[in-house]
Inverse folding.
């Protein structure tokens, strides 16, 4: 059961991250013609395009894509419950768990994007098209931290500060919600 649980969780997590990235790219108004952005759009377009015809956007928020990410989180939780316990008693709490899972996935995605950006900043030094998109996605969160915390010895510690905030939020949610948080 652990192997199947791992496989289901990994496949769902990867695709949920791609869908959340699409939402984030749109909200950040990132370069649409970047190869990384094109991959994200092409990976989600078959499902999002029909949903967009039915579900309108609200300002810059693509509600169809948000709903799709939310549904994926609920389906992931149901699939994991089926594998682990052999059955599921679907209830209204699953809708709340879907929101929690979506928030956790967004936080996890932010962590990985920050990590990739930090590694690319050491390796590619601005020559990678992926680094450009990572910059567009994370700069709105890192700029306010940089205003408070100046660079020390040429090192930008704003990513480290955001990592600490993310870890604190992760532990806090684990304390508030309990084992469900860690099972998502």
């Amino acid at each position: 059961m652990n192997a199947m649980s791992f496989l289901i969780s990994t496949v769902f997590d990867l695709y949920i991250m791609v869908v959340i990235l699409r939402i984030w790219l749109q909200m950040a108004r990132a370069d649409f013609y970047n190869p990384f952005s094109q991959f994200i759009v092409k990976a989600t377009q078959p499902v999002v395009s029909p949903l967009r015809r039915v579900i309108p956007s609200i300002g810059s928020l693509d509600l169809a894509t948000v709903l799709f990410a939310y549904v994926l989180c609920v389906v992931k939780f149901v699939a994991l419950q089926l594998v682990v316990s052999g059955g599921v008693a679907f209830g209204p709490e699953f809708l709340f768990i879907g929101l929690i899972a979506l928030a956790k996935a967004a936080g996890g995605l932010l962590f990985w994007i920050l990590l990739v950006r930090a590694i690319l900043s050491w390796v590619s030094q601005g020559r990678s098209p992926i680094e450009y998109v990572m910059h567009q996605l994370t700069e709105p969160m890192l700029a306010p931290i940089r205003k408070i915390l100046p660079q020390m010895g040429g090192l930008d510690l704003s990513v480290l500060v955001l990592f600490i905030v993310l870890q604190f939020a992760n532990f806090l949610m684990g304390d508030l919600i309990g084992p469900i948080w860690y099972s998502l």
